[in-house]
Each structure stands twice: as C-alpha cells, then as structure tokens.
C-alpha cells in the first residue's frame, strides 16, 4: 500500500464500510481545505485589486471616498465571483449529466 493509504489508516485489512467511511473523511477534509484555499484567494485578489484601484495615497487612515470605493469594489468583486461560480457549477453539472454522470 502507498504511504497515503497508511497515513489515513486505509489498509487492505480494513472492512469495506470502515474503509469507505475513512475515504469519505479524507474527501471531506480535502473539500474543506479547497474551500479555505478558495477563500484565501478571494481575499487576496480583493485586497490587490481594490487597494490598487481605490487607494491613491496610502497613509495612516482612509479617506471617506477611499472607504466607499473599497466597499463598492469588494461588493462588485464578490458579485462577479458568485456569478462566475454559479455559471461554472451549472456547466459542470450539465456536462456531467450529458456524460451520464461519469465524471
């Protein structure tokens, strides 16, 4: 068995139901880590894009116009991200259904 299998307690001597539950736990952990990485990417992109667009003279505090610009920029970025995510997920689901769910 590979080191992955032994690291997660998956061995040939495990019962099928126990192995399936461990496999499910590993998959859930991977999903969780991907969601966290996705969130980090969104925050980083928002910081980069909105700072560059809205903060012309960095200082110790933000002017009201800069605060408003950052807030609007963040809202637009999140709205765009949500639209793209929904379209992408619907496309993946459509393709999965057209292939008989064999993805």
UniProtKB/TrEMBL annotation:
GO molecular function annotation: metal ion binding
Keyword set, alphabetical order: Chaperone, Disulfide bond, Membrane, Metal-binding, Mitochondrion, Mitochondrion inner membrane, Protein transport, Translocation, Transport, Zinc
Region span, Disordered: 1-25
Tim10-like domain mapped to chain residues: 29-88
Topology term for the membrane: Peripheral membrane protein
GO cellular component: mitochondrial inner membrane; mitochondrial intermembrane space chaperone complex
Gene3D superfamilies per record: Mitochondrial import inner membrane translocase subunit tim13 like domains
UniProt comment concerning the protein's domains: The twin CX3C motif contains 4 conserved Cys residues that form 2 disulfide bonds in the mitochondrial intermembrane space.
Entry's family note: Belongs to the small Tim family.
Protein name: Mitochondrial import inner membrane translocase subunit
């Amino acid at each position: 068995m590979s080191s992955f299998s032994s690291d997660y307690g998956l061995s040939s001597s495990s019962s099928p139901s126990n192995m399936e539950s461990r496999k499910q736990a590993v998959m859930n952990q991977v999903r969780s880590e991907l969601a966290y990485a996705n969130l980090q990417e969104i925050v980083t992109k928002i910081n980069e894009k909105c700072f560059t667009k809205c903060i012309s003279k960095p200082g110790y505090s933000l002017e009201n116009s800069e605060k408003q610009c950052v807030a609007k920029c963040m809202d637009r970025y999140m709205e765009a991200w949500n639209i793209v995510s929904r379209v992408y997920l619907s496309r993946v689901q459509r393709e999965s259904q057209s292939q008989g769910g064999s993805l």
